[in-house]
Backbone:
């Protein structure tokens, strides 16, 4: 119950963020989508023991979150909810990989811990990238970008319709669950004898709703194309955005920037 | 069961993207050939239904704990395998984008594990076979149960293989399988029970919904052989190409050796001139690299091996830690700076 309301809230929250108008929001959705994908591939392509080389890539989400005026706390909250799943498997690395890679007095660092930290950083970076792209672009414009990437019409249409009806159906499920819990206040979940009727009734209503939706669409002249309104043109700014970020990712991938900075500083100190 | 980006490699992620895109293209072709335009809104609204229904807590009898619906099996029973697969793909896309539940690079893996195995293996090979001789409650129950359990077992095994091929985890194959399969057996049983309960109810109330779906003209005959052959070819091809690309890049070991060597040289000398020289050397790194790589190929000791570990000197580690901390501090400063500038801009505008 609480979970469903919370999810509904999170979707609406991201929707509202996507409606803002900032420098980042104004970038063409295709440029943002491609940049995000390149970023994720760059992050993931680091070998399993890389830690310091990954750090400069944090600049990308930090700058986007700042420029797009995305409030930090809700994004961090989502991050805390999601990351543990990937860490569950990564946490076993220290158990299996005991090779000592660094010792300083009583402190020893094993390969397992290094690869675990690498997974932690990669999780944070990839999750932030996915959340920022939707928070600055919104579903309609992402779908528009997908069409430009030649994703078939049916698939994009289906994605948009699912998305459009999620809030409607989640509200309905929340209502049904509220009714159930008011009649059965001590039940934590739905009892076995109501599984079929509760979910089944919802399903039948969904079918009927789909029919109404279809009829309404036909009456409004649906011909198989989902119109999303104005189609933004790709400008020089968009190309620059894509190119500059890609160059930065490539530089971060090829050079260990923190090690360079570190050697500069430690060299100067000496 | 949704895989995250952090645990997969670009090669595995890319290959699974292509494989899932292939299955999606095949499915689109199939549903378009029996173009029933009504099906498009039905798929959309059903996707939203499954999305919402996944959030219902079903109390598991005699245990006190609760389980959830996954929905892959229910979708293929109600919409047929092709539309079911596409609907699952869009549910997973929204989960990945809005909840970061499953990564974007891992999206192909997730669509394959949760969509392909249920819609293209469990549904035609188990559910349809059992239900072929007509509907009875017992038959429907065993069909839903078996297909849900086997679909999820295959999906979980897919997760194991994709993760191990990616090589980010140290988990040995046996341990991983022993971790994943029993958990997903339990999840599969709940999935089967919920699916059976829902199908049973809908069959009693509105049998035509189930019947229409199971007759589903174009949906009846899946050429599994065709799909599988196509998939194997596509997977081998892209896997091969992607790994060729990956291996033609400087591999981790050679790169760290070179880097370490470079930094050590720096430590032994002093002054900022050396550092500048070092940076210069780095910027001219790529043309140099071919030569270095060719040189190292001749030495078998330099070949990449799991056991080898780049020599870590205290000097490198110190500069790494210093540099890493500075990088993060700089990132925080930039973030703070941007938000302060933005706030000021707003205040002055207002």
Residues:
């Amino acid at each position: 119950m609480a979970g469903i309301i919370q999810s509904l809230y999170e979707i609406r929250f991201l929707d509202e963020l996507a409606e803002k108008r900032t420098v980042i929001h104004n970038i063409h959705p295709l440029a943002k989508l491609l940049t995000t994908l390149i970023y994720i591939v760059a992050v993931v392509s680091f070998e399993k023991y890389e830690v310091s080389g990954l750090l400069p890539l944090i600049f990308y989400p930090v700058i986007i979150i700042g420029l797009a005026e995305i409030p930090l706390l809700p994004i961090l909250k989502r991050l805390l909810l999601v990351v543990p799943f990937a860490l569950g498997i990564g946490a076993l690395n220290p158990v299996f990989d005991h090779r000592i890679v660094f010792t300083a007095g009583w402190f020893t660092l094993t390969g397992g811990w290094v690869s675990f930290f690498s997974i932690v950083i990669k999780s944070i970076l990839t999750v932030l990238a996915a959340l920022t792209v939707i928070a600055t672009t919104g579903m309609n414009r992402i779908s528009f970008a997908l069409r430009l990437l030649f994703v078939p019409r049916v698939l994009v249409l289906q994605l948009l319709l699912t998305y459009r009806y999620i809030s409607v159906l989640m509200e309905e499920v929340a209502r049904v669950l509220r009714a159930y819990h008011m009649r059965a206040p001590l039940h934590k979940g739905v009892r076995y004898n109501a599984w079929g009727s509760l979910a089944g009734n919802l399903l039948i209503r969904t079918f009927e709703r789909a029919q109404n939706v279809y009829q309404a669409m036909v009456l409004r002249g649906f011909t198989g194309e989902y119109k999303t309104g104005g189609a933004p043109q790709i400008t020089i700014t968009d190309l620059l955005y894509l190119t500059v970020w890609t160059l930065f990712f490539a530089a971060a991938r090829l050079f260990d920037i923190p090690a360079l900075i570190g050697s500069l500083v430690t060299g100067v100190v000496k | 069961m949704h895989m995250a980006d952090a645990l997969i490699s670009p090669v595995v992620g890319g290959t699974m993207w292509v494989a899932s895109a292939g299955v999606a293209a095949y499915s689109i072709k199939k549903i378009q050939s029996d173009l029933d335009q009504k099906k498009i809104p039905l798929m959309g609204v059903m996707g939203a239904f499954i999305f919402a229904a996944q959030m219902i807590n079903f109390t598991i009898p005699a245990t006190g704990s609760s389980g959830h619906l996954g929905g892959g099996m229910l979708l293929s029973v109600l919409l047929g395998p092709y539309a079911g697969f596409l609907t699952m793909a869009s549910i997973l896309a929204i989960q990945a984008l809005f909840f970061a539940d499953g990564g974007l690079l891992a999206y192909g893996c997730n669509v394959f594990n949760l969509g392909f195995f249920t819609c293209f293996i469990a549904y035609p090979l188990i559910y349809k076979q059992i239900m072929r001789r007509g509907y009875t409650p017992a038959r429907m129950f065993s069909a839903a149960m078996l297909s849900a359990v086997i679909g999820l077992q295959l999906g979980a095994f897919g997760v194991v293989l994709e993760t191990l091929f990616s090589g980010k985890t140290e988990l040995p194959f046996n341990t991983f399988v022993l971790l994943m399969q029993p958990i997903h057996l339990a999840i599969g049983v709940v999935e089967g029970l919920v699916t059976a309960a829902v199908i049973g109810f809908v069959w009693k109330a509105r049998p035509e919904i189930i019947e229409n779906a199971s007759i589903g003209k174009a949906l009846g005959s899946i050429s599994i052989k065709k799909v599988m052959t196509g998939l194997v070819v596509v997977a081998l091809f892209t896997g091969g190409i992607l790994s060729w690309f990956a291996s033609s890049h400087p591999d981790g070991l050679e790169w760290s050796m070179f880097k370490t060597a470079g930094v050590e040289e720096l430590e032994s000398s002093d002054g900022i001139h050396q550092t500048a020289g070092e940076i210069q050397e780095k910027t001219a790194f790529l043309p140099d690299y071919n030569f270095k790589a060719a040189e190292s190929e001749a030495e078998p000791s330099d070949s990449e091996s799991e056991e080898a570990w780049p020599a870590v000197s205290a000097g490198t580690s110190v500069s790494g830690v210093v540099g890493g901390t500075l990088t993060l501090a700089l990132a925080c400063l930039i973030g703070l700076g941007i938000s302060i500038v933005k706030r000021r801009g707003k205040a002055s505008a207002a």
